[in-house]
Write a structure and sequence with these properties.
The protein is of the alpha/beta class and 333 residues long. It is 42% helix and 12% strand. It folds into two domains: 218 residues, Endonuclease III, domain 1 (Orthogonal Bundle), CATH 1.10.340.30; 99 residues, Nucleoside Triphosphate Pyrophosphohydrolase (Alpha-Beta Complex). Strands 1, 2, 3, 4, 5, 6 and 7 form a seven-stranded mixed β-sheet that branches. The chain is elongated.
């Protein structure tokens, strides 16, 4: 047995032993069916665990099986997702449920899983390793941080070539009998121990093998490209009341907040306007300054694209975060 193989097995063992002692208690980890695992992975793609847990529980209660999700109306799925953001995830979730229901079963490997809407390399690997025990590394931000420190890999993490190197070097570190637990151990290490700015190396089960720890350069990794500055954009969303109803419009499928219900961006010039609330809202690529001017439409006013709804029940529709914020500020929620 050569030194490299011994090193790999030592890490395999250390990871699994640490996971058995210290794994986070997460509700989806008590499920072995791929539907529950897939749902958790989609929700957590752009969401913190603390927030995602509640949404996963809501979806599992409302749609306990993949078939029930596949058969649900789109509006119900989007409404249940409301508040999580990145709504393309919800549309892809629903589309994928329909495809798998038509197939009759979940694909059992990462390659086939990745062909489905909303399932990228990381999500496919996580599902395949956890649900089907495929030995494949699941590489998300936490995993990249752990592995680049472990190997002291100084190449830019944003490059596909670097990610390919990490996939190759991390593969032998997965327990062949429990690859899903190995991947989840790396996720938990990144979330709890190997954190971005203050890693708790003294508590890390891989400290004995970590090259960055040996050098004292943990926070130098991973190497990343400079982030692009979010584009600053002003947006006007008109709050138009008619008697006790408020005007909303369903946004186009493509573009920001696709298929969500929102206040109109345009207003006929004949309707007088008063100053309203303002809200700064940050998206991945946009820094939005959202203005909510208020107005009252004549009682018989009709705009074909507008729908008049009770503001007290608007929260139950699929709405963007700034609209939910406005409802809270105005005490409708």
């Amino acid at each position: 047995m050569n030194e490299t193989t011994t090193w790999n097995i030592d890490i395999q063992t250390a990871l699994i032993e640490w996971f058995d002692r210290s794994a986070r208690t997460l509700p989806w980890r008590s499920y072995s069916n791929p539907y529950a695992i897939w749902l958790s992975e989609v929700i957590l793609q752009q969401t913190r665990v603390a927030q995602g847990r509640a949404y996963w529980e809501k979806f599992m209660t409302e749609f306990p099986t993949l078939q029930s999700l596949a058969e649900a109306p789109s509006e119900k799925v989007m409404g249940l997702w409301a508040g999580l953001g990145y709504y393309s995830r919800a549309r892809n979730l629903h589309a994928t449920a329909k495809i798998i229901a038509e197939l009759g079963d979940f694909p059992n490997n990462a390659k086939d899983l990745q062909s489905l809407p909303g399932i990228g390399p990381y999500t496919a690997a996580a599902i395949a390793s956890i649900a089907f025990k495929q030995v494949i590394p699941a590489l998300d931000g936490n995993a990249f941080r752990v592995y680049t420190r472990l190997f002291a890999l100084a190449d830019c993490i944003d490059l596909p070539s670097t990610q390919k190197i990490i996939a190759h070097k991390s593969l032998p570190l997965l327990d062949p009998l429990r690859p899903g637990d190995s991947n989840q151990a790396i996720m938990d290490l990144g979330a709890q121990i190997c954190t971005p700015t203050q890693p708790k190396c003294i508590d890390c089960p891989l400290a004995f093998a970590c090259e960055a720890f040996r050098r004292g350069t943990q926070t130098d990794f991973p190497m990343k490209k400079s982030k692009k500055v979010a584009k600053q954009v002003s947006m006007t969303l008109h709050v138009i009341m008619r008697k006790d109803k408020i005007a909303v419009i369903k946004r186009p499928s493509k573009g920001i907040w696709g298929d969500l219900w929102c206040f109109p961006e345009e207003l006929p010039e004949t309707i007088p306007v008063i100053e309203g609330l303002r809200k700064r809202h940050l998206l991945t690529h946009l820094d939005l300054d959202v203005h909510f001017p208020e107005s009252h439409a004549p009682s018989l006013w009709i705009e074909p694209q507008w729908e008049w709804v009770d503001p007290n029940v608007l929260q139950h529709r699929a709405i963007p975060v700034p609209i939910r914020w406005w409802l809270e500020e105005k005490n409708y929620i």
